[in-house]
Amino acid sequence: MNVLVTGSNGFIGKNLISRLKEEENLNIFECDMDLDKGLLEEYCKEADFIYHLAGINRTDDDKDFMKSNYGFTLDLLEILIKYNNRCPIMLSSSIQASNISSYGKSKKAAEDLLLSYSKKNNSNIFIYRLPNIFGKWCKPNYNSVVATFCHNISRELPITITVPEKEITLVYIDDLVNQLIQLLYSTSTDRDNSFYEIQPTYSISLKNLSQLLYSFWEWGSNGYIPDLADDFTKKLYSTYLSYIPEDKLSHKLIMYCDDRGSFTEFLKTHRNGQISVNLIKPGIIKGNHYHNTKVEKFLVVGGRGVIRLKNIFSDSVLEYLVDSEAMEVIDIPIGYSHNIENTGNEDMIVVIWCNEVFDKENPDTYMLNI
Description:
Number of domains: 3
Number of helices: 8
Strand content: 25-35%
Strand order of the largest sheet: 2-1-3-4-5-8
Number of strands: 20
CATH superfamily of the largest domain: NAD(P)-binding Rossmann-like Domain
CATH class of the largest domain: Alpha Beta
CATH topology of the largest domain: Rossmann fold
Radius of gyration: 29 Å
């Protein structure tokens, strides 16, 4: 299948093409509005499906909106008519097509042009009036508040909010791309319904959006990650991380070292505890304590040793021989004293999950030798 993507260097275009290249048996024609007219004709002649994403949404001269958003659509359709190519067309429009701004009028004119073309040429069309799109590769300080906020906050630059309580509707770029790709395999012939919506959408005020993004920055500096159970927060966090400057992608952790080895807190959460890394030198035993509230999971990822558990009211000791050759998670219940002994000749590395972040003021740790 030959797939033509106009606006290939734009935000949506880059994400769509990246995903299309993962599909099998697709030949992708990449096109921007400055593409050579002869090459555009060749692409239109051979296209089996067209994603028409090209257009502008900012300009110093309002006349450019109609010239680009309507005019390029007209050029595209005239070429298709010339070669009698009735392939399906997806049009990237805007929710602003319903207002009277110069930009909105140009998008509405492009919609009307495509609707007329579809009726005359019996072609399938898919018009999407898109809200604000957010995700990776969107240009900051242009027309995306999410991109601008992510870019500035990750660089400790100021942001400006004129109307903090203003609500915006957002769609995640990968949700959009997933639905657009499905159009390639659609067998729909319903030409009475040419307008389509992307789901899910998310509504949030500019104030709450900025606060959430600032929390990502603050938590990141303290080793915390946000609660990702909320779908929007998960997608926004992924987006935020894609804007972090490359020279700030790494950060050193604090290692608490002694002659027994080291202990390092890796990740912290506000609701699901923390993950730590415990390094134990050969012949060393660590632990010999129990907890009343904290539970842990131990996983040896380097070296070998033995993990011992003992109910504080019992004389019986459980022993688990563990090594990195056979991944095994050991649960540490409350009320069980436990220790870890390195029985090998190299450092033993244990990944530990705990259901709460360590609090030195209330460590919930009580010594009891096994």
